Amino acid sequence: MTRNLTVLALLGCTVLAGCGTQNRSLESVHQPVVARTDYVYDMPSPGDRLSAGEAARLADWFDSLNLRYGDRVSVDAQGAGPAARDAVGRVVGRYGLLMDETAPVTQGEIAPGSVRVVVSRMTATVPNCPDWSRPAQPNFNGHAMSNYGCATNSNLAAMVADPRDLVSGRTGATSVDATLSTKAIGQYRRSEPTGAGGLKVETTKGK
Length: 207
Fold this sequence. Notes:
By secondary structure, this protein is of the alpha+beta class. It has helices at 2-17, 52-65, 82-93, 150-159, 165-168, 178-190; strands spanning 33-44, 72-75, 114-125.
């Protein structure tokens, strides 16, 4: 009877070892996933211009979205002339952003005499984290933990300023600005050593 129970226990351990997420290499299976959401705002632009009231409402809409770095703002060319586009660009400039040349495809038709502003926002998340689906022991195949990579990649997804960089990265500049490249080095050389003022004296005795 004892032998049968031992065999069943070993079989149970083997079954558990084969369940859960399998991390078989140094690169975790838990990777950031980037999703894009498009926010659309249609407003009238009679005579290919925006009234002062429409510009203020557009700014209020940007504030409600908490427009920030990483967001892409564009104007759909179907119903926008150059004057209306420039007016939208001036509002976008208040937030320190530049407008994209082309707008993504959105649903619905643009009414005649209207302009469509599109804000594209990307977010990065790591699905299924934390992941404790696989027990640490037994580990007959030398797997990493099922949760391996969750902390690092979740922090990366949370801290990256522009999630688009996780998809395609950025191309290097065609020219090099020597002033910018040496700025950090110059600041380091000009800084006073941290120990120049002497060591700080700490004591547990009262004054």
